[in-house]
Design goal:
With about 425 residues, this protein is mostly helical. The protein is built from 18 helices and no strands. The chain has a single domain, classed as MFS general substrate transporter like domains (Growth Hormone, Chain: A). The longest helix has about 35 residues. The relative contact order is 0.17.
Length: about 425
């Protein structure tokens, strides 16, 4: 498998390689990496509870979902390259503003945090919605599956480095600042590092060839009706499926810190193992699609993610929580490249950015519901109830996808 990946990577062009660099930096900084581990812990040290943490993350999900459709429109009008540069720039600004919340008056802190996270999430939406059309245009049929898979693996593998860093950086800054880990400062400065990583991420896309827009323009030429059925099918699937990932990403570190009373170093280490497992599974996506097909592969990964929440819900030990989290991350990373390739191939080229924006909107809507409702549900019913509800929704998503996907495939083949 390693040899086939090396051959495939050698085939991809300069633009795709620069995109892979950006994908790696995004994973290290935010998508499972440094900020993903430490932001909630930072908010806890500022004195906020799970209800505000849920609101904060819901605000991010709202920004991601609300800007998904505009991101698709900008990508169609200006090209995915320009939209991604804009998104990464917005993300760097929002990511820098979050740890600056303590610099102003206390009464400004909550709106500052929410608006900063909204800006960060909007930038991530612009980047994410346009990344699949960009990579689709930058690769050929022979290396495309491997390029998507490698991109999906690179994010978690980079997030592994970010998670490991999140485990020791607060202790390092605590020693330098001569404060304890109960103080917010040791968590603040690593968040600045995460935001700074988006600067070279944006520059990598700047250095892609400007003719990318013309390549994409040739791809999206022609006419055809808006694929409403495809959008509805994908949107419904992801609204039900995303909560399994969302509760793990949003509340795992809170659960470990507040309910199980585990140290930051252990939380970072477990998160890092989850990202490492995710990277390994993403690399296996092309092999699984070749053997089972995209629809069966996605359904299997979705079911594993749902069942992986059971140890988190039923066994109040950090070992079980860690095993469940690793399972969710591995299954999610496996399903991500499968869904990207599946949705792009299912969609006529003219509407790929639009379909990607619907996927982003569905993810954002689901994330808002989980984050906002989850914070209050934890206070009223506890963590296990939240994990079990998310698992049930993911099982429903698996059944819906399994029953609906063959009809969508047939419709696409006939188009």
């Amino acid at each position: 498998m390693a040899a086939s990946y090396l051959v495939a990577v050698r085939k991809v062009g300069r633009d795709a390689r620069l995109y892979l660099l950006t994908s790696g930096l995004m994973g290290f900084a935010f998508w499972g990496g440094l900020a993903a581990v430490l932001t909630n812990l930072y908010l806890l040290r500022l004195g906020y509870g799970s209800d505000f943490i849920g609101l904060y993350n819901a605000c991010g999900g709202f920004g991601y979902g609300a800007f998904a459709l505009p991101a698709g429109w900008v990508g169609r009008r200006l090209g995915s390259r320009q939209a991604m540069i804009l998104g990464l720039s917005m993300g760097a600004v929002g990511g820098t503003l979050v740890p600056l919340a303590e610099s102003g008056p206390a009464e400004w802190r909550i709106p500052w945090l929410l608006i900063s996270n909204l800006t960060l999430a909007a930038g991530q939406s612009f980047y994410s919605v346009n990344s699949s059309p960009f990579l689709m245009a930058a690769t050929g049929p022979e290396e495309r599956n491997h390029a998507f898979s490698f991109s999906s693996a690179l994010g978690p593998l980079s997030a592994f480095i970010g998670s490991v860093s999140a485990g020791f950086l607060p202790g390092l800054f605590a020693d330098l600042l001569q404060v304890t880990l109960a103080h917010s400062a040791p968590y603040r400065y690593p968040l600045f590092i995460a935001a700074a990583a988006l600067v070279p991420a944006a520059l990598a896309i700047v250095f892609t060839h400007p003719s990318e827009e013309s390549v994409l323009g040739r791809l999206v030429g022609g006419s055809g009706p808006i694929p409403w059925s495809i959008m509805l099918f994908l949107g419904c699937t992801l609204v039900l499926r995303t909560p399994a990932e969302s509760v793990a990403r949003t509340f795992f570190n809170v659960y470990m810190d507040q309910a199980l009373r585990q140290p930051t170093a252990l939380i970072g280490s477990v998160a890092a193992l989850g990202q490492l497992a995710g990277g390994a599974m993403a690399l296996a996506a092309p092999l699984m699609m070749a053997r089972l097909g995209a629809a069966r592969s996605y359904a299997a990964a979705s079911l594993v993610a749902a069942l992986s929440l059971w140890p988190l819900a039923l066994v109040p030990r950090w070992e079980a929580a860690g095993l469940g989290f690793i399972g969710v991350m591995a299954a999610t990373s496996l399903s991500f490249p499968i869904m990207n390739v599946y949705s792009m191939l299912l969609t006529p080229p003219r509407w790929r950015a639009s379909v990607a924006s619907v996927v982003g909107l569905a993810n954002g809507v689901s994330f808002v519901g989980v984050s906002l409702g989850g914070g209050y549900l934890i206070q009223s019913a506890g963590f296990p109830s939240l994990f079990l509800i998310a698992s049930g929704l993911a099982i429903a998503a698996t059944l819906f996808f399994w029953l609906r996907a063959p009809r969508e495939q047939a419709a696409r083949s006939a188009a």
